[in-house]
Amino acid sequence: MSKYTDTAEKMLEYIGGRENITAVTHCVTRMRFVLSEPAKADVKAIESIDIVKGTFTQAGQFQVIIGNEVSTFYNEFVKIAGVEDSSKEEAKQAAKQNMNFLQRLIGHLADIFTPIIPALVVGGLILGFRNVIGEINMMNGGTQTLVEVSQFWAGVHAFLWLIGEAIFHFLPVGITWAISRKMGTTQILGIVLGITLVSPQLLNAYGVAGAEEIPVWDFGFAQIEMIGYQAQVIPAILAGFVLAILELRLRKIVPNSISMIVVPFLALVPAVLIAHVILGPIGWSIGSVISDIVYSGLTSSVGWLFAAIFGFAYAPLVITGLHHMTNAIDLQLMSEFGGTNLWPMIALSNIAQGSAVLAMIYLNRKDKKEQQVSVPATISCYLGVTEPAMFGINLKYGFPFLAAMIGSATAAVISVGSSVMANSIGVGGIPGILSIQVQHMLTFAIAMVVAIAVPIMLTIAFSKTKMGVNAYKRIGK
């Protein structure tokens, strides 16, 4: 008998029995259930189990926070429950039955950007490091940069742009690949489509405005402008879905004997043509309108109000999954304006959520069980991953979540009011300062201090009010 046998049996009982489990998998710290009838799960009973450190529901999955021993417990649970081991992808597919149309739409958007986020984060760190060595006058009495005084650092600066350019200028390749991966179509065709949007043969998107003459493909009866879509998001998304839809439809009607030859040709060639004739120009226009609205709103006389609303509401957006939309907007802003004033507020919101948990660590310093969740959650928040902090601690009590939202809004007003811009998306926490444009780093640092201090002070203050007392009573402390 395993040391987790009794615990696993309790979990199975409280979750609603084997028949209530559609799929189950796990990640680094959490069990992820897709339940036939979520209402059958006894949440309070589950949270009373010693090994359980919290629960929450997201994207149609009921998630139980276990901790570092989750894999061992998971193996015992699967054996006792008599259910099959599910992959994360299978669990995601099963979870869709519990999601409405909007949740599914956001889920699709998340599935596109999630695989390429590691590259975007690396690119942000690289551009940030190039900022430090290439734009900050730190040598010879503050008159020269490292690049100006050292051939080694000049070489590093030039070399790193090779990676930065590959990530951001050739972003459409990653997007079209991610779409083909998600749709279950031929991934190499997605990659090829992406390359046709950024090919060196085309006029670079950044040079269109100043070009005296735009080259064309001349077919005699029609001409197509040879314009690239470097760093463009929406044209790549539209083109990627057209390719995937064409391939899926063709698979249904083309005989298997000739499918390998006919389907790729009849899917890729029309998709590339449609992308350059129709979808590219339309997508560029849509992206420009979206980025202009966001940028104008943030830089207008009421930009502080927009910032306060966004800073306050961003954490609730994370709960719904709607925050994935900001990735596309950030990337579009970077393409249109050479930076983003939206992303700094996201980094500040993450810091604020971590700071609220930090205050809860102090308030519940004698609760060793809770610290197993709160300490790692604070660290992950400060490094840009907020879910463990939000679902494991802040939403559980309520008042820390509100304190973090207020702190985030305050810091966002400072950021936008000072016109802080980031060169790119980066690590969405304290290291995010490396992605901020050099001239704004000091102001952003002040906003970071506010995002740390305000949530801590408010969380401690709220804990002494009726709101805090009721929260402790509800949890049974």
What would your notes on this structure say?
The protein contains 20 helices and 6 strands. The chain is mostly helical and 477 residues long. It has helices at 5-15, 43-47, 70-81, 88-95, 101-113, 117-135, 146-149, 151-168, 171-183, 187-198, 234-253, 256-299, 303-320, 325-337, 343-363, 368-382, 387-397, 399-417, 441-463, 466-475, and strands spanning 21-26, 30-35, 54-58, 61-65, 216-218, 223-225. 65% of the residues lie in helices and 6% in strands. Helix 9 runs antiparallel to helix 10, helix 10 packs antiparallel against helix 11 (234-253) and helix 11 (234-253) packs antiparallel against helix 12. The protein starts with a helix and ends with a helix. The chain has a 4-stranded antiparallel β-sheet, sandwiched between helices. Strands 5-6 form a two-stranded antiparallel ribbon. The protein is globular. The relative contact order is 0.09.
